Amino acid sequence: MHITMVKKKLQDGSECRKCAEITETLKKRQLWHRIDEIIWAHEDDPDSPGMQLGARLGVANAPFFVVRDDGDETVYTSALRLIRERLQQTVSSREEARHIDVDDIGGI
To answer: Do 84 and 91 form a contact (C-beta atoms < 8 A)?
Structure first.
């Protein structure tokens, strides 16, 4: 299994708030080492690798994950779903509620 995380880089060069939060969540759960590759979607560059991958996969929000396993490719727009389904850790209802984000409306 190969996991790619697509993160958004803002015009000022920093990563988006939600990308930083998800990275911290993965580190706290000791899962960060399971991310094999990071691809950046630069908000001011539609030709950046992350923006192109998002367009190809029909994903408009970052962060998102692409899992390649035995030739199959699965997209996860929810880090908690990835954690539960592919990384085999329990996710509580409280944790799910805490990760609901009003900023999910809009594009990468």
So the answer is: yes
